[in-house]
Here is the input.
Amino acid sequence: MSALPVYPWRLAPDGYATRRQLRAAGLRPGGQDVAAQLERPRYQRAPLVAYLYRVDLAKPVRPMTPSRWAALEKANRARRTCPECRRDAGYVIPVSLGSCVACAYLEERHTV
Here is the structure.
């Protein structure tokens, strides 16, 4: 197993990109292994690491098909639907509450 080349923060050579940089360019890693890494030193802690992929081996992002749009809409609708009152809250239900704000704080409204 060979070691990855390590570059200092912001000094990666051309031809390498992070996942976010690839996505901004309309690309994806496409199954390739990590080609290199960036390291940013931090005081008294482990360095921050960013993995780099080769741009020439990256593939275009797969287009969204009508079925993928429908599946995404269904998943987002499920995240907005309150499990107690079964209404669309209009926002993503916080995991910490487990229900919409109105249902989560129903007890407080009745005690006041």
Observations:
- Residues 5 and 61 are 26 Å apart (CA to CA).
- The two ends are 66 Å apart (CA to CA).
- The longest strand covers residues 45-54.
